[in-house]
Amino acid sequence: MTPLPTVLIIDDEVRSQEALRRTLEEDFEVFTASSAAQARALMEKESIQVVLTDQRMPEVSGVEFLKEVRQAWPDTVRIIISGYTDSEDIIAGINEAGIYQYLLKPWHPEQLLLTLKRAAELHRLQRENCQLAVELRAAEPVLRGRVEALRQRVKQAFALDNIVRVQHSPMSTVCDLVARAARYDVSILLSGDSGTGKELLARAIHYASGRAEQPFVVENCGAVPDNLLESELFGHKRGAFTGAFEDRVGLFQQAHGGTLFLDEIGETSPAFQVKLLRVLQEGEFRPLGGNRTVTVDVRVIAATNRDLEAEVKAGRFREDLYYRLATVPLRLPALRERPMDIPALARAILTKAGSALGRPVEGFAAATLDCLAAYAWPGNVRELQNEIRRMLVLSDGPVLTPELLAPHIRQAGLAVALEGATQPGLRGQVDALESRLLAETLARHNGNLSQTALELGLSRLGLRKKMQRLGLERPGRGGDA
Ligand SMILES: Nc1ncnc2c1ncn2[C@@H]1O[C@H](COP(=O)(O)OP(=O)(O)OP(=O)(O)O)[C@@H](O)[C@H]1O
Ligand SMILES: [Mg+2]
């Protein structure tokens, strides 16, 4: 049980002392004193939370005594009781003594009790507040350190270095451009098919810029009605329209000092484009239903999977807005335009997915990588990601073998093998197909000839002969053992 709050009653008349005690003793631990001197002595000994004193006392007045109490025990809550005639003396000293309540005689028990309970609650809250402040002060440097560490981690996670590409890939050219453009406060328009990495690149730009410590805010402008888009971006005042129950701070304001990423900008209406252009030109706007203009400092990066220049020519996208957004236009190449990136991307994705799913694997069989590199990936890196995660979930062994691939992706690999057959004609194509099938099956059985032969319906000798003729080696052994 929590201890009762403590109260000290000071009154030179024993009868009123007793009346006060009876009123309070159920809810308080009550101490009494008949003079300031006695009270002082008691307060030295006991931890008193609330002091309740009569104004009129022989040596020192109640107010005078409370001034003293305030000095020596500042966190006590101080209450004074007095008759009407003393009010002027009290009012003169009330601020100096830091008095919480001034009660007039005759007091009513219920009211007095209520006042005292509130006083005790105030004392409790004050104390809690002090403790929290102390704890907060102690925790601050720790929290500051943690925030800084997290900030560094985010910065690292979105660094340009984490965008996987190999040398001489078209993606490398884009990243080089980004590395240059990021630090200048210019608007950048990212275009490219779905899943090519536009959002990833937008974040990399932000974290490579001088705005890295400020917010990165994303708005998807696609398929959002104009009025909603405007209220999201520019904010609104309560009551600006039906349903606007509260003030809302727009994303432009939230991104102040940082970067605003406007995704799917090509989907916006002409009316919205006019408004956006004005905001970008003036650097200020007015929230819906508001009468004060807001000025913001925001870098805008926009993205689209349309050919925005063609949209401009066709009159569907405002030319002036296009130039405003595209100080630096960057086109992200589709994955089929950079097959050289696929093995590196696949490995990076596999490592990440492996640790995320708690299923680390060694890697891909060579034939799997060939199929991945041969497929056209209409959904680009996102589709590659999905395929690898799916394979990972379905696999048991340490290596991702080709039969885990979705059939259409595996077929793409076989088709390329056929096309690439060095010998023309049917014989060459059959050889290519055969060698592909043998290589896949061998990989799946980690080079075990008996198991491979069994699966293919061949004898061990027959298999060896075929391998010799096709110039195949057992995976990981560099020759026929
Ligand atoms: N070069 C890359 N290296 C590593 N991961 C990549 C790369 N490109 C894309 N990704 C990953 O692929 C996924 C899709 O990328 P992102 O969301 O940036 O594409 P997007 O172009 O914005 O697509 P959409 O137009 O569909 O929104 C993300 O998980 C992203 O991290
Ligand atoms: Mg995107």
Would you tell me which CATH topology of the largest domain applies? Rossmann fold
What form results from the Cα inertia axes?
A: elongated
Helical percentage: 40-55%
Biggest sheet: strand arrangement = 2-1-3-4-5
The separation of the N and C termini measures 81 Å
Which CATH architecture of the largest domain is right? Answer: 3-Layer(aba) Sandwich
Protein structure class: alpha/beta
Highest CATH level, the class of the largest domain: Alpha Beta
Give me the Rg, rounded. 39 Å
CATH superfamily of the largest domain: P-loop containing nucleotide triphosphate hydrolases
Low-confidence runs of at least 5 consecutive residues: none
How many individual helices?
19
SSE layout and pairing:
Layout: E1 6-10, H1 14-24, E2 29-33, H2 36-45, E3 50-54, H3 62-72, E4 77-82, H4 87-93, E5 101-104, H5 109-157, H6 170-181, E6 188-191, H7 198-208, E7 216-220, H8 226-234, E8 235-236, E9 248-249, H9 251-254, E10 259-263, H10 270-282, E11 284-285, E12 294-295, E13 299-304, H11 308-313, H12 319-325, E14 328-331, H13 342-356, E15 363-364, H14 366-374, H15 380-394, E16 399-400, H16 407-419, H17 425-444, H18 449-456, H19 460-470
Parallel strand pairs: 1-2, 1-3, 3-4, 4-5, 6-13, 6-14, 7-10, 10-13, 15-16
Antiparallel strand pairs: 8-9, 11-12
Helix pairs in contact: 13-15, 14-16, 16-17, 17-18, 18-19
Magnesium ion (MG) binds next to helix 7.
